[in-house]
Amino acid sequence: MATSIVMPQMGYDMQEGTVVRWYKQEGDVVARGEVIADIETDKATVEFEAYTSGVLRKIVVDTGIAIPVGQLIAVITDPDEPLPDHIETAIPATSRSDIPKSAGNAAVQPAAPPIVAPAGEVRASPIARRLAKEMGIDLVVVTGSGPGGRIVEQDILSYQEQTPLVPQAETVALDPALASENVDLSRMRQTIAKVTSDSKRDAPHFYVTSDVDMTKAMELRRDVNDSVSAESRVSVNDMVIKATSIALKRQPKFNAFFRGDRLQMNPSINMGIAIAQEAGLIVPGISACESKSLLEIATASRDLIARANNGTLRNEEYSGTTFSISNLGMFDVDSFVAIIFPPHAAVLAVGKVKEQAVARDGQLVVAQMMKATVSVDHRVADGAEAAQFLVEIKNLLENPVSLLLE
Mean pLDDT throughout 26-38? Predict the structure, then answer.
């Protein structure tokens, strides 16, 4: 049976993606789960796996072209099955309820009529709209070259080149010392701006902070690392991930998504790790942390960071997280608050572990201390619940043997 492969939605805010590399050619045999392409989103380049087996009968989209989510990019058929006489050239994501956002596979349908925008509406990509606004170009006068007449970035650039500049009635001389420079935002920075703005606007944030005594945890980490290979060495962040995973099992509300009139309870704890890159921040995840040991989390974390930096993340690692942790300790930061990554219910922010004088049993002693702050969506939980959740993490880290037992 012929299966259409469409541009997947890798993250709730993704609107379009670009195929930057095809690993298969037309006529090649494809196995389910095999990587067939690299897809560039606003934040990362992600490996795209086939969701069915067969033969890559048709590549519809060339590399380097921005394609809306849900639009056809390729067709996979059975080995002896020819390409159907009629295949869809565009599948609007909003009109195909049978296409899973993360999977992107559905039976090929007869060719749909051309996409026609409703009266008064101009179809344009987000980048094209931004450029038009910056250049003062009315989208109504631009001819779109994309699917169904959709205006894309190149259409705006071409229109600008072909349109002569209108001289200004008056030119005001500016002091060169006061002149400012405009720097275009990268696609990643634009996406980060939108995601964080949407999160702060839609989710009522509140914050709870606690001091965590990491003295025993640092001693345990040293003992563990003295006994394992370099590939399995445990970081402070790995211990925080493990403690948070245990706390989330005990208080699953913080691993849920707010869905209007209900909470979507997620059975698996997929821990997102904030990774700073030159172009901006990404939050890929380690899946099924509830069933991973501390050493397994350490190995998975090291592998995830390496592949995030060389651009070989998998789709589910980029789009399937349920909770996230941001650690700025390596940047010599003591304490900060993080913005919740939608649609998560909360995010944990941790600073560096440092020696600090603390009072203990009436005596002043030196301990290894770390500040932790949880940002919580008030629609999901209240202050007392957030405090209990953070104290759960604190107790686990201050009694770190428990990290080896679950």
Answer: 90
Q: What angle do CA 365, 371, 374 make, to 5 degrees?
A: 150
- Catalytic, 378? Answer yes
Helix (H, G, I), strand (E, B) or coil at 3: strand
204, two tokens:
């009522």
User: Which two tokens mark 271?
Assistant: 């821990």
Under a CB-based contact definition with an 8 Å cutoff, are residues 370 and 330 in contact? no
* pLDDT tens figures, 84-137: 776 644 333 333 333 333 333 533 433 333 334 444 457 776 667 767 777 778
d(CA 295, CA 286): 13
In terms of C-beta distances under 8 Å and separation of at least 24 residues, what long-range contacts does 348-353 make, across chains too? 348/240, 348/244, 348/323, 348/324, 348/372, 348/373, 348/374, 348/375, 348/393, 349/325, 349/373, 349/374, 349/375, 350/237, 350/240, 350/325, 350/326, 352/328, 353/214, 353/218, 353/236, 353/329
Which of 86, 205, 344, 378 is catalytic? The answer is: 378
- In the chain, CATH 3.30.559.10 sits at 204-405
At the topology level of CATH, where does 3-107 sit?
OB fold (Dihydrolipoamide Acetyltransferase, E2P) (2.40.50)
Q: What is the CATH number of domain 116-165?
A: 4.10.320.10
